[in-house]
Amino acid sequence: MAKSFIRNFTEQITGSNAKTTDTDIVQAVSHFEDEQSKLSKFKREFDKYTQATLVFDNASIRFFEFIRSLTDASWSQTQTVDRLCIDLARVRGENLQSFNKQMHSNINLLFDKFDNMKGRIDEQTHLQADYDKTRRHYHASMKRDQQIKVDRLKTDLDQLKSALSLVNEKLRDNLAKFHADVQDYYVQTTIEVVGMHSKFYHAYYKICSAFAGRRPAKLSTNSDYNENNHDKEMQSSSLSSTEDSRKKTPSAASESPSRPIGYRVLHQARVIHDYEAENEDELDLVKDEYISIISFQNEDDNERDKGWEYAEKSNGAIGIFPANFAVRLYDNEVKQL
Protein backbone atom coordinates (compact mmCIF):
# COMPACT_ATOMS: atom_id res chain seq x y z
CA MET A 1 0.00 0.00 0.00
CA ALA A 2 2.79 2.40 0.97
CA LYS A 3 4.78 1.52 -2.18
CA SER A 4 1.72 2.16 -4.35
CA PHE A 5 1.20 5.57 -2.75
CA ILE A 6 4.84 6.54 -3.25
CA ARG A 7 4.77 5.39 -6.90
CA ASN A 8 1.59 7.39 -7.64
CA PHE A 9 3.02 10.44 -5.89
CA THR A 10 6.24 10.21 -7.92
CA GLU A 11 4.31 9.90 -11.19
CA GLN A 12 2.34 13.01 -10.33
CA ILE A 13 5.59 14.94 -9.86
CA THR A 14 7.48 13.63 -12.91
CA GLY A 15 4.46 13.41 -15.19
CA SER A 16 4.77 9.57 -15.44
CA ASN A 17 7.38 7.04 -14.49
CA ALA A 18 6.08 4.19 -16.68
CA LYS A 19 6.57 3.52 -20.37
CA THR A 20 3.86 4.17 -22.92
CA THR A 21 1.87 1.07 -23.78
CA ASP A 22 -0.61 0.09 -26.48
CA THR A 23 -2.80 -2.74 -25.19
CA ASP A 24 -3.63 -4.07 -28.66
CA ILE A 25 0.03 -4.21 -29.65
CA VAL A 26 1.08 -5.82 -26.37
CA GLN A 27 -1.47 -8.59 -26.90
CA ALA A 28 -0.56 -9.02 -30.57
CA VAL A 29 3.17 -9.22 -29.79
CA SER A 30 2.49 -11.78 -27.06
CA HIS A 31 0.53 -13.86 -29.58
CA PHE A 32 3.38 -13.46 -32.08
CA GLU A 33 5.88 -14.83 -29.55
CA ASP A 34 3.60 -17.82 -28.88
CA GLU A 35 3.44 -18.57 -32.62
CA GLN A 36 7.22 -18.26 -32.90
CA SER A 37 7.61 -20.76 -30.07
CA LYS A 38 5.19 -23.15 -31.82
CA LEU A 39 7.22 -22.94 -35.04
CA SER A 40 10.40 -23.91 -33.17
CA LYS A 41 8.54 -26.85 -31.62
CA PHE A 42 7.20 -27.82 -35.05
CA LYS A 43 10.75 -28.03 -36.41
CA ARG A 44 11.85 -30.19 -33.47
CA GLU A 45 8.88 -32.52 -33.88
CA PHE A 46 9.50 -32.77 -37.63
CA ASP A 47 13.14 -33.73 -37.05
CA LYS A 48 12.00 -36.42 -34.60
CA TYR A 49 9.50 -37.70 -37.15
CA THR A 50 12.03 -37.93 -39.98
CA GLN A 51 14.50 -39.68 -37.68
CA ALA A 52 11.85 -42.21 -36.66
CA THR A 53 10.94 -42.70 -40.33
CA LEU A 54 14.58 -43.35 -41.14
CA VAL A 55 14.81 -45.95 -38.38
CA PHE A 56 11.71 -47.71 -39.71
CA ASP A 57 12.93 -47.55 -43.31
CA ASN A 58 16.24 -49.16 -42.39
CA ALA A 59 14.44 -51.83 -40.36
CA SER A 60 12.16 -52.52 -43.31
CA ILE A 61 15.12 -52.88 -45.68
CA ARG A 62 16.83 -55.33 -43.32
CA PHE A 63 13.61 -57.30 -42.84
CA PHE A 64 12.99 -57.74 -46.56
CA GLU A 65 16.63 -58.66 -47.10
CA PHE A 66 16.30 -61.32 -44.40
CA ILE A 67 13.14 -62.76 -45.95
CA ARG A 68 14.98 -62.86 -49.26
CA SER A 69 17.82 -64.85 -47.63
CA LEU A 70 15.41 -67.58 -46.49
CA THR A 71 14.83 -68.86 -50.02
CA ASP A 72 17.24 -71.07 -51.92
CA ALA A 73 19.12 -69.63 -54.85
CA SER A 74 17.48 -72.26 -57.07
CA TRP A 75 14.12 -70.52 -56.78
CA SER A 76 13.32 -69.06 -60.16
CA GLN A 77 12.00 -65.82 -58.65
CA THR A 78 15.21 -64.95 -56.78
CA GLN A 79 16.12 -62.08 -59.08
CA THR A 80 12.54 -60.82 -59.02
CA VAL A 81 12.62 -60.62 -55.22
CA ASP A 82 16.02 -58.93 -55.38
CA ARG A 83 14.52 -56.30 -57.67
CA LEU A 84 11.57 -55.93 -55.30
CA CYS A 85 13.87 -55.23 -52.34
CA ILE A 86 15.87 -52.71 -54.36
CA ASP A 87 12.74 -50.94 -55.59
CA LEU A 88 11.23 -50.70 -52.10
CA ALA A 89 14.47 -49.35 -50.63
CA ARG A 90 14.74 -46.82 -53.45
CA VAL A 91 11.16 -45.59 -53.03
CA ARG A 92 11.61 -45.22 -49.27
CA GLY A 93 14.86 -43.30 -49.64
CA GLU A 94 13.45 -41.12 -52.41
CA ASN A 95 10.36 -40.30 -50.35
CA LEU A 96 12.31 -39.42 -47.20
CA GLN A 97 14.73 -37.21 -49.09
CA SER A 98 11.99 -35.36 -50.96
CA PHE A 99 9.83 -34.98 -47.86
CA ASN A 100 12.72 -33.75 -45.74
CA LYS A 101 13.88 -31.25 -48.37
CA GLN A 102 10.40 -29.82 -48.97
CA MET A 103 9.45 -29.46 -45.31
CA HIS A 104 12.76 -27.91 -44.25
CA SER A 105 12.45 -25.43 -47.11
CA ASN A 106 8.96 -24.46 -45.91
CA ILE A 107 10.02 -24.22 -42.27
CA ASN A 108 13.07 -22.08 -43.06
CA LEU A 109 10.93 -19.78 -45.20
CA LEU A 110 8.53 -19.25 -42.31
CA PHE A 111 11.43 -18.62 -39.91
CA ASP A 112 12.59 -15.86 -42.27
CA LYS A 113 9.13 -14.29 -42.15
CA PHE A 114 9.18 -14.39 -38.36
CA ASP A 115 12.61 -12.71 -38.33
CA ASN A 116 11.32 -9.98 -40.64
CA MET A 117 8.31 -9.32 -38.43
CA LYS A 118 10.52 -9.39 -35.32
CA GLY A 119 12.53 -6.58 -36.90
CA ARG A 120 9.38 -4.44 -37.22
CA ILE A 121 8.48 -5.15 -33.60
CA ASP A 122 11.98 -4.13 -32.49
CA GLU A 123 11.66 -0.91 -34.49
CA GLN A 124 8.45 -0.06 -32.61
CA THR A 125 10.06 -0.96 -29.28
CA HIS A 126 13.03 1.37 -29.87
CA LEU A 127 10.79 4.23 -31.00
CA GLN A 128 8.58 3.79 -27.96
CA ALA A 129 11.65 3.83 -25.69
CA ASP A 130 12.85 7.09 -27.30
CA TYR A 131 9.40 8.62 -26.84
CA ASP A 132 9.21 7.63 -23.16
CA LYS A 133 12.73 8.91 -22.49
CA THR A 134 11.98 12.27 -24.14
CA ARG A 135 8.69 12.52 -22.28
CA ARG A 136 10.41 12.02 -18.92
CA HIS A 137 13.01 14.67 -19.77
CA TYR A 138 10.25 17.02 -20.86
CA HIS A 139 8.35 16.75 -17.58
CA ALA A 140 11.57 17.04 -15.55
CA SER A 141 12.53 20.24 -17.42
CA MET A 142 9.11 21.73 -16.74
CA LYS A 143 9.64 21.24 -13.00
CA ARG A 144 12.99 23.05 -13.21
CA ASP A 145 11.48 25.90 -15.19
CA GLN A 146 13.93 25.47 -18.10
CA GLN A 147 11.76 27.05 -20.78
CA ILE A 148 14.24 26.85 -23.67
CA LYS A 149 14.88 23.17 -23.03
CA VAL A 150 11.17 22.60 -22.53
CA ASP A 151 10.36 24.11 -25.92
CA ARG A 152 12.97 21.95 -27.68
CA LEU A 153 11.84 18.78 -25.91
CA LYS A 154 8.21 19.61 -26.66
CA THR A 155 9.02 19.74 -30.38
CA ASP A 156 10.92 16.43 -30.20
CA LEU A 157 8.12 14.89 -28.17
CA ASP A 158 5.45 15.88 -30.67
CA GLN A 159 7.48 14.43 -33.55
CA LEU A 160 8.13 11.17 -31.70
CA LYS A 161 4.49 10.89 -30.69
CA SER A 162 3.36 11.30 -34.29
CA ALA A 163 5.91 8.76 -35.52
CA LEU A 164 5.01 6.30 -32.76
CA SER A 165 1.32 6.60 -33.52
CA LEU A 166 1.97 5.84 -37.20
CA VAL A 167 4.26 2.87 -36.42
CA ASN A 168 1.74 1.45 -33.94
CA GLU A 169 -1.04 1.63 -36.49
CA LYS A 170 1.04 -0.17 -39.14
CA LEU A 171 2.28 -2.76 -36.67
CA ARG A 172 -1.25 -3.62 -35.53
CA ASP A 173 -2.27 -4.22 -39.15
CA ASN A 174 0.93 -6.14 -39.96
CA LEU A 175 0.60 -8.44 -36.95
CA ALA A 176 -3.03 -9.22 -37.81
CA LYS A 177 -2.08 -10.02 -41.42
CA PHE A 178 0.94 -12.01 -40.26
CA HIS A 179 -1.24 -14.24 -38.07
CA ALA A 180 -3.52 -14.93 -41.05
CA ASP A 181 -0.49 -15.77 -43.23
CA VAL A 182 0.86 -18.18 -40.62
CA GLN A 183 -2.47 -19.97 -40.48
CA ASP A 184 -2.52 -20.25 -44.29
CA TYR A 185 0.98 -21.72 -44.11
CA TYR A 186 -0.08 -24.42 -41.67
CA VAL A 187 -3.13 -25.26 -43.79
CA GLN A 188 -0.94 -25.66 -46.88
CA THR A 189 1.62 -27.66 -44.88
CA THR A 190 -1.09 -30.09 -43.77
CA ILE A 191 -2.20 -30.55 -47.38
CA GLU A 192 1.39 -31.08 -48.56
CA VAL A 193 2.19 -33.61 -45.82
CA VAL A 194 -0.90 -35.68 -46.62
CA GLY A 195 -0.26 -35.40 -50.37
CA MET A 196 3.37 -36.52 -50.15
CA HIS A 197 2.42 -39.46 -47.94
CA SER A 198 -0.32 -40.41 -50.39
CA LYS A 199 2.14 -40.33 -53.29
CA PHE A 200 4.64 -42.47 -51.38
CA TYR A 201 2.15 -45.12 -50.30
CA HIS A 202 0.69 -45.26 -53.81
CA ALA A 203 4.13 -45.96 -55.30
CA TYR A 204 4.87 -48.49 -52.55
CA TYR A 205 1.53 -50.19 -53.18
CA LYS A 206 2.16 -50.46 -56.92
CA ILE A 207 5.48 -52.22 -56.38
CA CYS A 208 4.15 -54.64 -53.76
CA SER A 209 0.90 -55.39 -55.57
CA ALA A 210 2.76 -56.11 -58.81
CA PHE A 211 4.68 -58.81 -56.97
CA ALA A 212 1.83 -60.15 -54.82
CA GLY A 213 -0.75 -60.02 -57.61
CA ARG A 214 0.57 -63.24 -59.08
CA ARG A 215 1.25 -66.52 -57.32
CA PRO A 216 5.04 -67.01 -57.03
CA ALA A 217 6.37 -70.13 -58.71
CA LYS A 218 7.46 -73.00 -56.46
CA LEU A 219 10.84 -74.66 -56.54
CA SER A 220 9.40 -77.78 -58.19
CA THR A 221 6.48 -78.07 -60.60
CA ASN A 222 4.87 -80.59 -62.91
CA SER A 223 5.01 -78.29 -65.90
CA ASP A 224 8.25 -76.70 -67.06
CA TYR A 225 6.26 -74.71 -69.59
CA ASN A 226 4.06 -73.10 -66.92
CA GLU A 227 7.13 -72.38 -64.80
CA ASN A 228 8.96 -70.61 -67.60
CA ASN A 229 5.86 -68.70 -68.66
CA HIS A 230 5.26 -67.60 -65.07
CA ASP A 231 8.88 -66.42 -64.76
CA LYS A 232 8.46 -64.15 -67.75
CA GLU A 233 5.24 -62.70 -66.34
CA MET A 234 6.82 -61.99 -62.94
CA GLN A 235 9.87 -60.34 -64.46
CA SER A 236 7.66 -58.24 -66.73
CA SER A 237 5.53 -57.22 -63.74
CA SER A 238 8.60 -56.22 -61.73
CA LEU A 239 9.94 -54.13 -64.57
CA SER A 240 6.59 -52.40 -65.11
CA SER A 241 6.39 -51.52 -61.40
CA THR A 242 9.39 -49.25 -61.79
CA GLU A 243 8.53 -47.94 -65.25
CA ASP A 244 7.16 -44.64 -63.92
CA SER A 245 10.23 -43.86 -61.87
CA ARG A 246 12.54 -44.71 -64.76
CA LYS A 247 10.59 -42.36 -67.06
CA LYS A 248 11.14 -39.59 -64.55
CA THR A 249 14.88 -40.25 -64.41
CA PRO A 250 16.10 -40.85 -67.94
CA SER A 251 19.64 -39.95 -66.88
CA ALA A 252 19.88 -42.98 -64.60
CA ALA A 253 20.75 -45.35 -67.42
CA SER A 254 23.28 -42.97 -68.92
CA GLU A 255 25.08 -42.54 -65.59
CA SER A 256 25.56 -46.30 -65.26
CA PRO A 257 25.48 -47.71 -68.82
CA SER A 258 26.81 -51.16 -67.94
CA ARG A 259 25.97 -51.61 -64.27
CA PRO A 260 25.95 -55.21 -62.97
CA ILE A 261 22.72 -56.84 -61.86
CA GLY A 262 22.12 -58.74 -58.63
CA TYR A 263 22.97 -56.59 -55.63
CA ARG A 264 21.58 -55.78 -52.22
CA VAL A 265 21.32 -52.68 -50.06
CA LEU A 266 23.69 -52.72 -47.08
CA HIS A 267 22.50 -49.53 -45.41
CA GLN A 268 21.57 -45.92 -46.09
CA ALA A 269 23.92 -42.96 -45.87
CA ARG A 270 23.72 -39.18 -45.93
CA VAL A 271 26.03 -37.17 -48.20
CA ILE A 272 28.05 -34.59 -46.26
CA HIS A 273 29.91 -32.94 -49.16
CA ASP A 274 29.05 -32.20 -52.78
CA TYR A 275 30.95 -34.37 -55.26
CA GLU A 276 31.21 -33.96 -59.03
CA ALA A 277 31.86 -37.17 -60.92
CA GLU A 278 35.12 -37.24 -62.87
CA ASN A 279 34.54 -40.58 -64.63
CA GLU A 280 31.44 -42.24 -66.09
CA ASP A 281 31.39 -44.90 -63.35
CA GLU A 282 31.24 -42.27 -60.58
CA LEU A 283 28.18 -40.62 -59.03
CA ASP A 284 27.40 -36.93 -58.75
CA LEU A 285 26.49 -36.24 -55.12
CA VAL A 286 24.71 -33.32 -53.47
CA LYS A 287 25.14 -32.53 -49.80
CA ASP A 288 22.33 -33.85 -47.54
CA GLU A 289 20.87 -36.23 -50.14
CA TYR A 290 20.38 -39.87 -49.16
CA ILE A 291 22.02 -42.80 -50.94
CA SER A 292 21.96 -46.57 -50.48
CA ILE A 293 25.30 -48.34 -50.02
CA ILE A 294 25.15 -51.57 -52.03
CA SER A 295 27.06 -54.82 -52.54
CA PHE A 296 26.95 -56.96 -55.68
CA GLN A 297 26.33 -60.69 -55.48
CA ASN A 298 29.21 -61.28 -57.88
CA GLU A 299 32.33 -60.42 -55.87
CA ASP A 300 34.22 -59.46 -59.03
CA ASP A 301 31.75 -56.60 -59.52
CA ASN A 302 32.64 -55.22 -56.07
CA GLU A 303 36.23 -54.44 -57.05
CA ARG A 304 37.14 -50.80 -56.43
CA ASP A 305 39.98 -48.64 -55.16
CA LYS A 306 40.51 -48.30 -51.44
CA GLY A 307 38.36 -45.56 -49.93
CA TRP A 308 35.57 -45.89 -52.52
CA GLU A 309 32.10 -47.43 -52.19
CA TYR A 310 29.32 -48.49 -54.53
CA ALA A 311 25.96 -46.77 -54.02
CA GLU A 312 22.55 -46.32 -55.59
CA LYS A 313 20.92 -42.89 -55.74
CA SER A 314 17.22 -42.22 -55.36
CA ASN A 315 16.89 -41.89 -59.14
CA GLY A 316 18.23 -45.43 -59.65
CA ALA A 317 21.73 -44.40 -60.76
CA ILE A 318 24.50 -46.74 -59.54
CA GLY A 319 28.20 -45.94 -59.31
CA ILE A 320 31.17 -45.39 -57.02
CA PHE A 321 31.98 -42.41 -54.82
CA PRO A 322 34.60 -41.43 -52.19
CA ALA A 323 33.50 -43.14 -48.96
CA ASN A 324 34.42 -40.13 -46.81
CA PHE A 325 31.85 -38.00 -48.64
CA ALA A 326 28.95 -39.70 -46.82
CA VAL A 327 28.16 -40.95 -43.33
CA ARG A 328 26.23 -44.07 -42.44
CA LEU A 329 22.83 -43.61 -40.83
CA TYR A 330 22.52 -45.83 -37.78
CA ASP A 331 19.16 -46.73 -36.24
CA ASN A 332 20.33 -46.01 -32.70
CA GLU A 333 21.73 -42.59 -33.50
CA VAL A 334 19.82 -39.31 -33.54
CA LYS A 335 21.18 -37.32 -36.44
CA GLN A 336 20.18 -33.88 -37.71
CA LEU A 337 18.43 -34.45 -41.01
What are the key terms here?
disordered C terminus; alpha+beta; Substrate Binding Domain Of Dnak, Chain:A, Domain 2; SH3 type barrels; 337 residues; 2 domains; 7 helices
Compact description:
By secondary structure, this protein is of the alpha+beta class.
Describe the protein.
- The structure is a single chain.
- With 337 residues, the protein is an alpha+beta fold.
- The protein has 2 domains: 188 residues, Arfaptin homology (AH) domain/BAR domain (Substrate Binding Domain Of Dnak, Chain:A, Domain 2), CATH 1.20.1270; 75 residues, SH3 Domains (SH3 type barrels).
- Helices cover 66% and strands 9% of the residues.
- The protein has 7 helices and 5 strands.
- Strands 4-3-2-1-5 form a 5-stranded antiparallel sheet, with helices on one face.
- Strand 3 and strand 4 form a beta hairpin.
- The N terminus and C terminus are likely disordered.
Spatial sequence of strands, sheet with the most strands: 4-3-2-1-5
Helix content: 55-70%
The rounded distance between the terminal residues' Cα atoms is 57 Å
The total count of strands amounts to: 5
Number of helices in the DSSP assignment: 7
Percentage of residues in strands: 5-15%
Element layout with pairings:
Layout: H1 2-14, H2 23-70, H3 78-143, H4 147-212, H5 224-241, H6 243-248, H7 251-255, E1 263-271, E2 290-296, E3 308-312, E4 318-322, E5 326-328
Antiparallel strand pairs: 1-2, 1-5, 2-3, 3-4
